[in-house]
Amino acid sequence: MPSTPTLYRGHEGMWMWIVHRATGVAIFFFLLVHVLDTALVRVSPDAYNQVIGSYKTPLYGLVEAGLVAAIVVHAFNGLRIIAVDRWTWALRHQKLLVWVVWGIFVVLMAGFLPRHLGNVFGGQ
Q1: Which of 61, 66, 75, 77 is the least buried, fewest Cβ under 10 Å from its Cβ?
Q2: CA dihedral of 40, 45, 48, 53, whole degrees rounded to 10
Q3: pLDDT by residue for the chain (124 residues), tens digit each?
């Protein structure tokens, strides 16, 4: 019996499904770490200051840029998913909507990255 093609098999929808899940997991773990390091201030203010001080390194600056990228993709892909679930025209134009998500991502990151990385590597 031949298999019936599905909406997500090997096309844009499938790849964006994977991107959405991966960015969601990354954002979740960031929030978990954020809650834990913020809670550290009540346990040991000195340890909290040491942890926060370690965040001012170039490595964490790059991680921060990755976090912003994950949030931007996740947010606009989420809007695409809502559109696809709500309107049949969006389902029929899924490929275009995926390109719109990536276009918005590129524009926003092009505005964010130069200033952010300038602060990370140029220092102030």
Answers
A1: 66
A2: 170
A3: 556 555 556 677 788 999 999 999 999 999 999 999 888 888 888 988 888 888 888 999 999 999 999 999 999 999 999 999 999 988 888 899 999 999 999 999 999 999 999 999 986 5
Token code pair at residue 36: 């834990």
Q: Please say whether the beta carbons of 101 and 80 come within 8 A.
A: yes
Structure tokens at 121: 């590597």
Q: How many residues make up the chain in this entry?
A: 124
pTM assigned to the model: 0.82
Strand residue runs (E) in the chain: none
**Gap between the Cα atoms of 96 and 104, Å rounded:** 12
What are the Cα distances from residue 101, in Å, to 28, 78, 81?
21, 10, 11
Q: What is the dihedral of CA 104, 109, 111, 117, to 10 degrees?
A: 180
